Amino acid sequence: RWVTDENIDTTGVWGSTLSRLEALDGLVANLEGCISDRGERWPEKTYYFRAPPAFAVPALEAAGASFVSLANNHILDYREQGLRDTKTHLADAGIAHAGAGTDREAALEPTMFEAGDVRVAAFGLTDQSAAFASTDEDPGTAYATLDPGRPGTRALVEDVLDSVE
Fold first, then answer.
1. Does 106 fall in a domain?
2. What is the pLDDT, as a whole number, of residue 160?
3. pLDDT tens per residue across span 28-54
4. Is 142 inside a domain boundary?
5. Is the model's pLDDT at 62 over the cut of 60?
6. Which of 2, 85, 88 lies closest to 38, judged by CA?
7. How far is 128 from 144, CA to CA, in rounded Å?
8. Count of domains in the chain?
9. Is 7 inside a domain boundary?
C-alpha cells in the first residue's frame, strides 16, 4: 500500500516517470477505482480499490492527467457514494472524465479536454463487470459488449461520437 501516514508524497507514486508525464501535452488514464473515503463495499468482490482524495487528486494533478476513464470493474467498489465522490473530486480538479454516471445516458456522455493545442473528445466503455452497468434509472458504468465486428458495438460508438459537438 503506497499511501500511509508516513508516506504521503503525492508525486512519489510516479517515480522516475514523473518528468516524462509532466512533459506530455495530455495524459489519458484509466482510473481503476474510486476517489473517496466513504461508501459501503459492493458485496462479494475479491478486490476493492479506493484512493483517499487528499492523495489521489494531487497525484493525478502532479502527473498532468487530462482525462480519466471511469469505465472499469472497480469504479463502483464503494457503490454509488464512491462514484459520486470520484466525479466531484475530478470535476473540482478540472480533470475530464467519462464512462460512468448517474444513469445510462450520463455514463455514455462524452467529454472534451485540451491536449496542447488540440481539443479532444473522449468517452469510456467497458465490457467488465456487467453488475456495474448503468441503466435508465441506476448509476453505473458505460457497459457494452465490445466487439468491433458486432453491429451493436459499432452503432453505440457511432451514436456517442455523433453526440460530440
1. yes
2. 86
3. 999 999 999 999 999 999 999 999 999
4. yes
5. yes
6. 85
7. 9
8. 1
9. no
Q: Which residues pair with 100 in a beta bridge?
A: 141
Sign of torsion over alpha carbons 65, 66, 72, 76: positive
pTM to 2 decimal places: 0.90
Nine cell digits for residue 100: 460512468
Residue 128 belongs to some domain of the structure:
yes
Q: Which residue has the cell 441506476?
A: 138
Q: What is the pLDDT of residues 17-27, one digit of tens each?
A: 999 999 999 99
Are 141 and 76 a contacting pair, CB within 8 Å?
yes
